[in-house]
Amino acid sequence: MTGKSRSLHGTTLVELTVAVAIMTTVFAAIMPLFAGIRNSADARWAGLEMVQNARVLNDHLYRHLAQARRIVAVSACTDPGGYIEFEAEDGVVYRCAGQARGYVEFGPVGELRELAGPVEYLRFVCYDAVDLGRPIHSPDDIRLVTWEARLRSAGPLTQGRRITGACCLRIRPAEDSGEAIDP
C-alpha cells in the first residue's frame, strides 16, 4: 500500500457538526421571516373583515333608512348600545340595535338577526331639517340620521376602526291628508 494514494470519500464528525451548525443558524435567521409573513396575512385578513363589516353596516342602514316612512324611536346619542326603530314603506317597524354581545342586529321588531360585528359601540344622532347643529330626540321631527360605530378587530395585530354614516329621510306626502310633510 505504499505509494498508492487513498481516496477517502467520507465525512468526518467535525465536518458534519459544522454543517449542522450552519444549517441551524440559517434556519434560525429565516424562521422569523415566515412568522412575520403569517402575522402580516392575519393582520390583513382582520382589516379586510372590518372593512366588510363597515360596508355591510353602512349600506344596510342607508338603504333602509332612505326608504323609511318615519322614525318610531331612537336611543339617546350617548347610549353605546344605541338603537333606532323606523317604519318602512310596507308598514313594518324595523329595529337596528347594538347588542351587549357586541354585534349589531337588524330586522322587524321582535325578529332581530345579526347584521355586523363585533362592535364596541353603536350610536345614533338625529337632527331636524332646520338645525343640523343640535341633536333632537322627537321622532316626528327627525329628518337626518347619523350613526357612528367602532368596529372591534378580529385579530390581535390590528386596531379597531371607527365608521360613520348619515342618511337624509325622504318623507313622502301624508296618505290621509292632501298635504306634504315639509322636510
What do you see in this structure?
The protein is of the alpha+beta class. The protein has one domain (13-168). It has 1 helix and 8 strands; from the N terminus they run αββββββββ. It has one helix at residues 13-66, and strands spanning 70-74, 83-87, 93-98, 104-108, 113-116, 119-127, 144-151, 161-168. The chain has a 5-stranded antiparallel sheet with strand order 1-2-3-4-5. A 3-stranded antiparallel sheet has the order 6-7-8, covered by helices on one side. The model is unreliable at 176-183 (pLDDT under 50).
Number of helices: 1
Number of domains: 1
Indicate the radius of gyration in whole angstroms.
Answer: 31 Å
State the distance separating the first and last CA atoms: 112 Å
Overall pLDDT metric? 84
How much helix is in the residues? 25-40%
With strands numbered from the N-terminus, the spatial order across the biggest sheet is 1-2-3-4-5
Give the SSE map.
Blueprint: H1 13-66, E1 70-74, E2 83-87, E3 93-98, E4 104-108, E5 113-116, E6 119-127, E7 144-151, E8 161-168
Antiparallel strand pairs: 1-2, 2-3, 3-4, 4-5, 6-7, 7-8
Outline of the structure:
The protein contains 1 helix and 8 strands; from the N terminus they run αββββββββ. The chain has 183 residues and is an alpha+beta fold.
Provide tags for this entry:
alpha+beta; three-stranded antiparallel sheet; disordered C terminus
